[in-house]
Amino acid sequence: MVDIVSRIQQLLDKEKPFALARVIKTWRSSPRPVGSAMLITDDGEMHGSVSGGCIETAVVKGALEVIMSGQSKVMDFGVADEEAWEVGLSCGGSVSVLITPFMEDDAYVKFLRFLDKNKPFFILTRLNGPSHSNPIYLDRMEDELAGNPVLVNNINNAFESGLTGAIVESRAGDEYFAHFFRAKPRLILIGSAHITSELLVLASMHDFETIVIDPRDTFAKKTSRQQEPNQLIVKWPQEVLGEMDLDQNTFAVILSHDPKIDDEALKIILPSEMKYVGALGSKKTHAKRVERLKTYGFSEDEIARIDAPIGIDIGSQTPKEIAISVMGALIKAKNA
């Protein structure tokens, strides 16, 4: 759903009616996972996808009805359904899509604010009863859920299991769709160079939060970039990395080509829980790096965490190609 955020903001600014269609349940083979979303305006404009094309026409028709009526609806598609065959859902599975109408500005503004914080939150939408058309945007178990411990427990269990969304029940048997949004993966780039600039573009495309750290003022501030990082820190790595939460949602790429910078970063990164660390350089350069790290007391297992030479082997030659190779390795690690 985050891929349609910019369009939501534009429509809010224009006060243009729209509806959101979200996949809330799948069975067996399905083109798109739970949580996939599509935005539909009152004149049929689409952004995003709920199936990759096979049910979009029917969903747009349903969304236009929702915009007109102001009432949410759930559309079910499966291979046994005449409409599903008509629109091409022949993958052998089934999918349920929740369509909700444009709500008051405050609700979507809250959604955009939560995304900007890059903290976990969820949208809770009742699927039965009179209030099912009013999603609740929560960044924690707030007062809205007080007195409903069964629902809270079911939401927590679904979130902890790693699901992107789930249909959960309250003690009274009411059904809700809990749509989870997790913090973006965080990419720390040590060193500002040409490859850094190319990586920032790809990282933004793939929804990474980016931090560039480089103590060299000229490199940090005067390198031309098509995409700016979320944070640019002109300090030595050892001055800032120790204050960061280097958890399983954090990734690092070492790019400065200067051992005085790179090694200091690795001294802090290697003992951390960070999910991925890669370092630029040839096999010869990395062999020298390994010897230095051994003198600092790092074990072979710790040093083996470093992906070097960095990236997926695609025979990269140019900075753009190297950046693609590195991004491939980052995505592979993220999805592992």
UniProtKB/TrEMBL annotation:
Residue ranges of the TM segments: none
InterPro entries per record: MoCofactor_Util/Proc (IPR052698), XdhC_CoxI (IPR003777), XdhC_Rossmann_dom (IPR027051)
XdhC- CoxI domain boundaries: 12-78
Domain of life per record: Bacteria
Pfam families tied to this protein: XdhC_C, XdhC_CoxI
Annotated ranges, domain XdhC Rossmann: 187-328
Protein name, as recorded: XdhC/CoxI family protein
Classification via Gene3D superfamilies: NAD(P)-binding Rossmann-like Domain
